[in-house]
Amino acid sequence: MISDIRMWSFEDRAASRGYNYIAGLDEAGRGPLAGPVVSAAVILPRSFSCPGIADSKKLTPLKREKFYSVIMEEAVAAATAFAASEEIDVINILQASLLSMKRAVKKLSLSDGSQLIPDYLLVDGIFTIESEGIDQEAIVHGDARSVSIAAASILAKVTRDRVMQQLHLEYPCYGFDRHKGYPTKAHKEAIVVHGPSPVHRKTFKGVREFM
Question: What mean pLDDT comes out for the span 19-43?
């Protein structure tokens, strides 16, 4: 039993071409003014069943946490990786997002700790990554079309939200626990009052004006 037969179409096509380890890639945190961008890579077994899995942005936090646990328990391999705000300022948010995806792929491993190198990548969006010989394809709105990318979307989002909760403990005046670094009215007002924190993206509009 699978979550939705249509969500497996890209995985099925890759498998029919002889690929065995097909990883979905997605990121979370391109739009915020603070914190890292976080990416995830996920390889799912064909037996994976998680009805209702979809783009993480459309799920409630409670459902994301529930799906996160299921994915981490059942995935053949899953990994998350970051690109910090300092890196984003140096290489720009697009390149930082692609870099964090590349890092996530390199962190994939089996339960015994041995590295697992996928032989095919399904990447959310319009750009592929530097993959060192791994075949891949970019899928627009992939988080709503591929179960592997949807799973990666959930892992990336949950992981980043947890990071922002921790950053809230260090910088409570910004309200990272509520808006997770996104440019809400309250967040922008906090930047005006307190100035940017060390984890703010200094090149982003709404931050750079107050450096």
Answer: 98
Using DSSP's 3-state secondary structure scheme, residue 178 falls into helix
Residue 200: both structure tokens together: 């703010």
User: DSSP letters of 92-121?
Assistant: -HHHHHHHHHHHHHHH-B-TTS-B---SEE
pLDDT of residue 5: 72
Residue 194: both structure tokens together = 């307190």
pLDDT at 53: 85
Contact 23, 146 (CB under 8 A): no
Overall fold of domain 5-163: Nucleotidyltransferase; domain 5 (3.30.420)
Q: Where are the beta strands (DSSP E) in 44-169?
A: 77-83, 120-124, 135-139
For the beta sheet containing 37-43, the strands, ordered from the edge strand earlier in sequence to the opposite edge, are 77-83, 37-43, 22-28, 120-124, 135-139
Structure tokens at 148: 């592997």
**pLDDT at residue 178 tops 90:** yes
* pLDDT tens-digit map of 54-83: 766 788 999 999 999 999 999 999 999 999
Output the pLDDT for position 132: 83
What pLDDT score was predicted for residue 39?
98
Are 195 and 33 spatial neighbours (Cβ–Cβ below 8 Å)?
no
User: Which among 5, 1, 71, 8 is positioned nearest to 42, based on CA atoms?
Assistant: 71
For the chain, which residues make up each domain, given as ranges?
Answer: 5-163
